């Protein structure tokens, strides 16, 4: 609980209608998309301006109050989970488009703006905003920045970090900073790149300048049905080797095809592996590449290759893919969506191993895969009403992550580390790696109040000595060979 | 001077043939491409392995010896300038290609590998390395990483930072770290992006994993002659608005055309503004876009539009452009190549203002311009034998930089800050901006020994308090409105 005097100061900053302190109302903010962990915050403040955010953060710094920024709360790794003694800074009232600069193809928005609203705003001028997480109709740009969100089209267009040109941020010590620059190669350190994906641990964005992209002349979507994941995976490699860069390449396995079909009836062919390829660009180029992809699918044994004949068919194909997570609910009462990265070429062996691991503990795992960039989403199906099964499912999902790392991949492709994967960071990074990151964190946040106890396996005290190299006793003898 | 015992330890690490301490030999290392400032280092060490680099840096940390890494010494901002009491770590003996991974389109090299050798190595397989600074036949990948080097083709392909997938580095405290990851969105902070372009202030790279790109099917080069810079600039805007992304777009003004012609006879049309557009990609697409660019040039009043008819013609056109700096030597005994960035759309007014400023001090300035990304290279011509003229030229070149910043641009597009533009950083960034960058620096380099006294206007002591927000006395009274 915060002292009444501090609450009163928050109220002075944001007004009575911008402050939530009632327990029943605070419960709305107890978790994000990772519902397994819940903590009710001490207060929620809803600023309207960057100036108010700065005052809020300064007050937090003055009284050492932890804070976490929150957009739509759709994150899947607990990044927006509050601290019990801390506050939530909600961006629900900072939803304005601040400026649009068409000649330079950029737009500046407040962090509470919804992802798909950016595209809606620039669409009349022939532009779109490229990163498209599945939650794009709900999630906010601020949250996308925190998590460096991806989406099916990041294969061609890149993650959020590729599209953030500049940021206005409030640092955890209450400074208002402008990072990024009008030019592509700004002098000094590239702090924009560090801030994007820092999961709220380096401060709070109050304005974001985004790159917008010209809408392609045409968009083509192909579906191909294969008898094996190996054949579908080989086709993906062949497409890339042919210098074709589709805007998206997705693979779904039989279980995810079945559940998508049951949920939204996308009329997918029933097969072992479905490959979905989207191509966009100038008509003349897309037509040619569509034919090439068609031929590569056939050459790898696809027994059906279907080109969407209308916008309706195209949307239906995507609807099935995007429904894959929710549709898992039809296969089992509960499920965990995991998010790992593997080298693209190792997909068949990874899926085989996941199948083996699942069988050993008598669970089922369905798989959807951003095949172009190696981002795998295994969906671990289970029934929480069976005693002990949830624990087994969590354990399996973590072992799948270790498998990804062991094969040269990563513990998260796009969902972030947050609260969920803190411990896994220790498996992926060495001590010096994590230590350097933590020291960067301390450079921004010496008090450890910006979304604390996230991202890293253990908090690091910023006062800890970061002095020069301390030699081993043998070195002190001056024997360089023993270094 | 370093104590004999320390010199002996360096010798133990790199061997007699890997150590330079003779004054006459050390003079080779007294400056890089910025020849105006010279300092002879105390020693030069030439390691062969990452392990040796680590031992060298640990020794430096132990004795608080400043160090700077050096590739080919072609940098233009004094980034490789040594400290008198410090050492140079030369990468002249770390020039190996470590591994090539074609399916994943990546290559890992030692930092001493020359830029163009990367392309030479992967060319037989149909790939190339995209960043192409003018010095690419000499400069090294390590230097490119330090400066985030660009080149004419960065408009389409991006700067060095876009192409560095991972790094092995030795931190200034002597830790060997691996940053970057196999996936595009690695968890944790994006330290790769911070390291690239950090100009040697965060440590030394010992291995670099680069992205390689498939060679385009065809490359087309168009030359267009205009009667005004405004018309050429408008054409550039029109090309981009038409969703065409050329691999390069360059503008040269009359003075630079004249000097290039005199130097290498590229047979340029004599005009006020020459626009050079290179298009690459699949044949079918490049043909179409070449026609579109041709039409846009004509629509903006180009009185000659010439398409290179052979590889020879294409190389000749580029030879003229790439010779622009050296050719300035034909116009005046001395010259300063400046490097600023402006919003693309403001080119005509900037060039007009530069002309006015030059006239006022009775000097001439020729201009070449990476027009697509707004990177301007004014070449200030002068005669150092005329008393006072060098000073006037330097002053003019700095005032041009201020002009770039005032118009919303930047103090450097691709040459870096180094020693040359330390003071200009204070004009471009606010105190909190610089302070945050310096704290990031301290996170890596608490002793301030990694290329010290570069990049920032004044060194910051890493021990300086970086505590929480300290309120103004009025705030202490709890009056939030006075924040």
Automatic annotation (TrEMBL), chains A, B:
Cited InterPro entries: FAD-bd_oxidored_4_C, FAD-bd_PCMH, FAD-bd_PCMH-like_sf, FAD-bd_PCMH_sub2, FAD-linked_Oxase-like_C, FAD-linked_OxidoTrans_Type4, Oxid_FAD_bind_N, Vanillyl_alc_oxidase_C-sub2
UniProt xrefs under PROSITE patterns: FAD_PCMH
Pfam families xref list: FAD-oxidase_C (PF02913), FAD_binding_4 (PF01565)
Keywords from the UniProt entry: FAD, Flavoprotein, Oxidoreductase
Superkingdom of source: Bacteria
Residue intervals of the FAD-binding PCMH-type domain: 37-215
Cofactor(s) for this UniProt protein: FAD
Gene Ontology MF terms: FAD binding; oxidoreductase activity
Protein name (database record): FAD-binding protein
């Amino acid at each position: 609980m915060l002292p009444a005097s501090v609450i009163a100061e928050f109220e002075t900053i944001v007004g009575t209608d911008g402050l939530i302190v009632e327990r029943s109302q605070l419960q709305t903010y107890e978790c994000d998309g990772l519902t397994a962990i819940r903590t009710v915050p001490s207060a929620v403040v809803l600023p309207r301006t960057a100036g108010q955010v700065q005052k809020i953060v300064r007050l937090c710094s003055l009284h050492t109050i932890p804070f976490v920024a929150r957009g739509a709360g759709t994150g899947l790794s607990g990044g927006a989970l509050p601290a019990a003694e801390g506050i939530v800074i909600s961006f629900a009232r900072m939803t304005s488009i601040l400026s649009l600069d068409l000649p330079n193809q950029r737009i500046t928005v407040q962090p509470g703006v919804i992802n798909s609203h950016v595209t809606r705003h620039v669409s009349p001028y022939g532009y779109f905003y490229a990163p498209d997480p599945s939650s794009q109709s709900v999630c906010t740009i601020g949250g996308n920045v925190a998590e460096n969100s991806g989406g099916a089209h990041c294969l061609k267009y890149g993650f959020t970090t590729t599209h953030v040109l500049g940021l206005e941020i409030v640092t955890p010590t209450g400074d208002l900073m402008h990072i990024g620059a009008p030019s592509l190669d700004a002098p000094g350190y590239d702090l924009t790149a560090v801030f994007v994906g820092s999961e709220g641990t380096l401060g709070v964005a109050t304005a974001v300048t985004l790159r917008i992209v010209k809408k392609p002349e045409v968009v083509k979507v192909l579906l191909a049905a294969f008898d094996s994941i190996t054949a579908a995976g080989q086709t993906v490699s062949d497409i890339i080797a042919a210098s074709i860069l589709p805007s998206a390449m997705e693979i779904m396995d039989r279980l995810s095809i079945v559940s998508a079909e049951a949920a939204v009836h996308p009329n997918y062919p029933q097969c072992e592996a479905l490959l979905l390829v989207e191509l966009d660009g100038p008509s003349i180029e897309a037509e040619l590449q569509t034919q090439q992809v068609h031929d590569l699918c056939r050459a790898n044994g696809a027994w059906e290759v279907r080109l969407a004949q209308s916008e309706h068919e195209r949307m239906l194909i995507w609807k099935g893919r995007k429904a894959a997570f929710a549709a898992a609910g039809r296969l089992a009462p509960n499920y965990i969506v995991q998010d790992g990265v593997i080298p693209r070429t190792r997909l068949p062996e990874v899926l085989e191993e996941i199948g083996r691991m699942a069988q050993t503990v008598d669970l089922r795992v369905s798989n959807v895969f951003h095949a172009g960039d190696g981002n795998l989403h295994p969906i671990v199906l289970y029934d929480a009403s069976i005693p002990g099964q949830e624990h087994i499912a969590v354990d399996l999902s973590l072992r799948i992550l270790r498998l990804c790392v062991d094969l040269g991949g990563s513990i998260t492709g796009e969902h972030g580390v947050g609260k969920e994967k803190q411990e896994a960071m220790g498996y992926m990074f060495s001590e010096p790696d994590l230590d350097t990151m933590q020291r960067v964190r301390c450079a921004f946040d010496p008090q450890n109040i910006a979304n604390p106890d996230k991202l890293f396996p253990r908090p690091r005290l910023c006062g800890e000595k970061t002095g020069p190299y301390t030699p081993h006793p043998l070195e002190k003898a001056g024997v360089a060979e023993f270094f």
